[in-house]
Amino acid sequence: MMAAIDVAIAVLPLAAIAYLMVGRFWPATRAMPVAWIVAIGAGYFGWNMSPTWIGAATINGFITAASILWIVFGAILLLYTLKRTGAFDAINQGFASISDDRRVQVVLLVFLMGSFIEGAAGFGTPAAIVGPLLVGLGFPPLAAVVVALTGNLMAITFGAVGTPLIIGMIDIFEDVDVISSAVAAQGMNIEGWVAEIAVWAASFHVIVGAALPFIGVAMMTRFFGEERSIKPALEVLPLTLFAWASFAVPYWATAYFLGPEFPGLIGAMVGLFVTVGALKAGFFHPDEDWDFADQSAWPDHWVGDIQPGESSSRDTHVAADGGTVQTMSLPRAWTPYALVAVLLVVTRVVDPVTTFLQSNLVLQWQSILGTSLSGSFATLYLPGAVFVAVHLLTIPIHGMDAKEIKGAWAETIEKVTPAVIALLFAVATVQIMLQSGTATGTDGMLIVLSDTMAGVAGGVYPFFASLVGALGAFLAGSNTVSDILFGTFQYGVADQIGFPHTIILGAQAVGGAIGNLIAVHNVVAALAVVGLVGQEGRVIRYELIPLAYYATMTGALTLLFGYVLFPGVF
């Protein structure tokens, strides 16, 4: 009876989020403070957490949220910098020159370019960059967010140059004696074993992700097209499959031969080069361009503070027909984003640079309120610093004047402000749930929920392994955190039911990516950069579609691999 009560209490914060945001369409700015209060009640009355521990967990959550906000701030600042200089318009015209078809633009920008950004930066950065690019091209902001969140899913498992597997599994497993000893008995070390997990995760993604570019296009045409049908998406099915193959082959080969750091980066770079080349050569392009209906026919909730295709640039001139013609060259316009890509790779691959950034200007709070919790804010290492640095470099590169600089900063602050409350309380809620066990020396809320799932599922638990990973990412907004939370747990369940550990942890790594589709942090950040904060519940409803597909297919493959095809894998 007590176990049932524990489960009911543990699920209350999640139920509050689901009911208020998905059921009632409450914005995260209202729902997350309520969920935080519910989590406090669950922690205090259900887990006997002291006020000190609840306060420490909340502060730790605020510190983590500050890291996320720093990234969002930097991404938005660079966005509005490029809008002020005219670079944004030039970039839009560059993609439009390849194709005016919105379906083709989704494949190029969302699936391929978004995957590159995810592989380099992680932290939900792709939606913060790609979403505004789509809006600049004329997409409805709501449609831009929905497809931007969906398209780069295959790269999330390896996001930020392998951080989810390097930090989330290698660093954790090396400190767990039971796991490290068992791996050593197999003649491997932890690093080599996690590299094998990476290959299994890539294998799941390659198979299930074959439909991913198509799903992104189909969601756009079905929910935002004038005809409300997936038929227009079927017309570009050959293109989506070609783009997937161009990405998937180097992606899987990189995971197999080089490890978890670069699959997303290399897969996206090769895929983008090959796919753009094929389109320019006249292959795979649909016969007729597809576009949205006229904006006058769009529902009000599709558009927020930023108008699709709006231009605030000063680098244009009036054409003979009264329109505007962009005068900034495409290479010059792309230079800031090229610098972002280079700096992100350098800061995460070049050891002396990485070490310097990770050890300087780091704000730390050890033993928060006398507890064992500690929080840190790595000002220079977080991608936000790269965005701000590139903003500063763009000032002379694009010749910005003081008025333009001031305008970019003012617009950035205005757009970021609504996301602050939502993110602060979302992460604080997660931290209370995470620390409920640490504070009391018992199983925390998340472990209770996962144990319950394992006990109920029994031998078919591997089908749900990716969903457990998705739960962690949904709560924390991070594949890395999901791997930290549930990697050891998934290993233990595999032990209990006699299932291959490597395969179930591959499913965990994929699940961490799936959960990012509906992670409140990511959804809020994506909506903030297109001026649509308040539509979180609606976006999450849409994202449940690719989540259900991906989780179901991954679950079926996990059972097939572990019980039928590869039962002898460690």
UniProtKB/TrEMBL annotation:
<dbReference type="Pfam" id="PF02652">
    <property type="entry name" value="Lactate_perm"/>
</dbReference>
<feature type="transmembrane region" description="Helical">
    <location>
        <begin position="193"/>
        <end position="215"/>
    </location>
</feature>
<feature type="transmembrane region" description="Helical">
    <location>
        <begin position="264"/>
        <end position="283"/>
    </location>
</feature>
<dbReference type="GO" id="GO:0015129">
    <property type="term" value="F:lactate transmembrane transporter activity"/>
</dbReference>
<feature type="transmembrane region" description="Helical">
    <location>
        <begin position="62"/>
        <end position="82"/>
    </location>
</feature>
<dbReference type="GO" id="GO:0015295">
    <property type="term" value="F:solute:proton symporter activity"/>
</dbReference>
<keyword id="KW-0813">Transport</keyword>
<feature type="transmembrane region" description="Helical">
    <location>
        <begin position="236"/>
        <end position="258"/>
    </location>
</feature>
<feature type="transmembrane region" description="Helical">
    <location>
        <begin position="377"/>
        <end position="395"/>
    </location>
</feature>
<dbReference type="GO" id="GO:0005886">
    <property type="term" value="C:plasma membrane"/>
</dbReference>
<feature type="transmembrane region" description="Helical">
    <location>
        <begin position="6"/>
        <end position="22"/>
    </location>
</feature>
<keyword id="KW-0472">Membrane</keyword>
<feature type="transmembrane region" description="Helical">
    <location>
        <begin position="34"/>
        <end position="56"/>
    </location>
</feature>
<keyword id="KW-1133">Transmembrane helix</keyword>
<feature type="transmembrane region" description="Helical">
    <location>
        <begin position="416"/>
        <end position="434"/>
    </location>
</feature>
<feature type="transmembrane region" description="Helical">
    <location>
        <begin position="337"/>
        <end position="357"/>
    </location>
</feature>
<keyword id="KW-0812">Transmembrane</keyword>
<feature type="transmembrane region" description="Helical">
    <location>
        <begin position="156"/>
        <end position="173"/>
    </location>
</feature>
<feature type="transmembrane region" description="Helical">
    <location>
        <begin position="103"/>
        <end position="123"/>
    </location>
</feature>
<feature type="transmembrane region" description="Helical">
    <location>
        <begin position="454"/>
        <end position="476"/>
    </location>
</feature>
<feature type="transmembrane region" description="Helical">
    <location>
        <begin position="547"/>
        <end position="566"/>
    </location>
</feature>
<protein>
    <submittedName>
        <fullName>L-lactate permease</fullName>
    </submittedName>
</protein>
<dbReference type="InterPro" id="IPR003804">
    <property type="entry name" value="Lactate_perm"/>
</dbReference>
<feature type="transmembrane region" description="Helical">
    <location>
        <begin position="129"/>
        <end position="149"/>
    </location>
</feature>
<keyword id="KW-1003">Cell membrane</keyword>
